[in-house]
Design brief:
Chains A, B: InterPro entries: Glutathione-S-Trfase_C-like, Glutathione-S-Trfase_C_sf, Glutathione_S-Trfase, Glutathione_S-Trfase_N, GST_C, GST_Zeta, Thioredoxin-like_sf. Chains A, B: Belongs to the GST superfamily. Zeta family. Chains A, B: One of its GO terms (molecular function) is glutathione transferase activity. Chains A, B: It holds the Pfam family GST_C. Chains A, B: This is Maleylacetoacetate isomerase. The structure is a homodimer. By secondary structure, chain A is an alpha+beta fold. Chain A has 2 domains: 79 residues, Glutaredoxin (3-Layer(aba) Sandwich), CATH 3.40.30; 116 residues, Up-down Bundle (Glutathione S-transferase Yfyf (Class Pi), Chain A, domain 2). Chain A contains 9 helices and 4 strands; from the N terminus they run βαβαββααααααα. Chain A has a 4-stranded mixed beta sheet, with helices on one face. In chain A, α1 links the parallel β1 and β2. In chain A, α1 runs parallel beside α3, α1 packs across α7 and α4 packs parallel to α7. The longest helix of chain A is centred in the middle third of the chain and has 25 residues. Chain A is globular and about 45 Å long. The interface between A and B is large, with 55 and 56 residues.
Amino acid sequence: MTVQPEFELYSFWRTSATYRVRVALNLKGLTARERDVDLIKGEQRDPEFLKLSPMGAIPALVEPGHPAMTQSTAILEYLDEIAPEPPLLPADPRGRARVRSIAAMLAADTHPLITPRVRGYLTKEAGFDDAAWKRWQIQWFTTGLQAVEARLAAEAETGDFCHGDRVTLADICLASIPAVMKIFAIEVADIPTIDRIMARCEAIEAFAAADPYRQAGAPSR
Amino acid sequence: MTVQPEFELYSFWRTSATYRVRVALNLKGLTARERDVDLIKGEQRDPEFLKLSPMGAIPALVEPGHPAMTQSTAILEYLDEIAPEPPLLPADPRGRARVRSIAAMLAADTHPLITPRVRGYLTKEAGFDDAAWKRWQIQWFTTGLQAVEARLAAEAETGDFCHGDRVTLADICLASIPAVMKIFAIEVADIPTIDRIMARCEAIEAFAAADPYRQAGAPSR
């Protein structure tokens, strides 16, 4: 692919799912013009945005003349198909299944539990205050990361990264969790394999440049 | 593939994620010996099972001599790779992105919210009784299905099924939601496109045979 599409990425500085797409774009050498959807102001419920993303969820990746693409894992697979280098999935089906499984443990079984719409419901319907919400966040970040740690520590396929010695979708989805945990001042203990892999990822500019605090609209730390 | 692996599927009669794998196996003409993990008895927290699936989640698909595969969407992609007919993804990258996105709206943004581990937390820590849990289920089933309905009704790619006139991963993940809603006597109104597609799916034996009430261990209706 010599000329990339003129991507627009509907995004917000601090969201985990947008972070994943930013990392993949960076790794592939692709660029996207970001369009801010302020989740704190509730702009994701704007009728115009809901036409792009009926779930009111970001990211949404738009190419001129085509419907918006939503859901970070679907977007990552798409970017890997249209710009195959460097590959974000292993070559063998079992390896791909392992990478997609680790990615889903985080992007499906962990992150959807701590989104603004869930917070809104628990605040309104279950009386969650800030402390109860933080306990909820800690519960699911811990559950997800400890389960992934158990796999990474036990499975022979783990290398410098989650799967061997190259970055895959699993590393991108994994890094998207601590990237937002630090915003909420949450830490999970006893995950040495994850900590080791995260240090490797943070040293890669494609990851570092996607850091929430380096995005437009982020507060100074 | 002339000889299929001797799959074992760790499963439970009523789970949405296991249903998806059953449908895919059926569509591909593959078989798996099911091994029951009784989620009501808490067998998913058995130490032996946690070695296979550290998240304590089913399904897990096991081939002799290989680590267990977990996460339904990763398993579906794997089955589609090792047994390509009939294909469960469209041939074009944008079509695949759309199918994976619809699948993720249900398998990632909807279903993880209504799993036993979430119910356990809300019961213990937030005082949810049966009625509060049912309102929670209704909230997220409705949110997910209405968002998918909005897409299916608006987007030109929708056909007899979610994407054109062939079954894809999107239909399998979509059908996995009403398949369990009926167990909890939950209905979502005003989703005519989904209702139309579900009627098509139910007429296909690969879907009908995966119905929770047709599995070993299911109560009689």
